[in-house]
Amino acid sequence: MVEIVAYAKERLDLLLTCDVNSHHLVWSSTNINPKEESLFNFVMSAELHILNRGTEPTFLDFRKQEILNITLCTGGVVDLVEGWRVSSELSGSDHRQVRFALEQIQKEEKLGRNPRKTN
């Protein structure tokens, strides 16, 4: 993960939805321990943004409900993510689906021809 984030920061933007199986009060889990504090410190030192919103659990079973999935991104993506939410649809798993949309990016097209590709 450290290498992926380092590579992305130099070359591209990054958007990750992760089953971290990690509790932290920052993403509205019910508790925290040293393992989770380590993940949180990495997220902060890598300057990643946590996109989770609300307190809807991402994990449900007959014993407990918890937020174990987080969505992370680099700064260039944070304003493009819209409507982050935990879906109420059945997923076939004890983890619920995380849903969001990405704002459409308009690229300016440059028209022209390449004489080498002309038949």
UniProtKB/TrEMBL annotation:
One of its GO terms (molecular function) is RNA-directed DNA polymerase activity. Residues 11-98 form the Endonuclease/exonuclease/phosphatase domain. Gene3D superfamilies: Endonuclease/exonuclease/phosphatase. The keyword 4Fe-4S does not apply. This is Reverse transcriptase. The keyword Repeat does not apply. Pfam families: Exo_endo_phos_2. Keywords: Nucleotidyltransferase, RNA-directed DNA polymerase, Transferase. It comes from the Eukaryota.
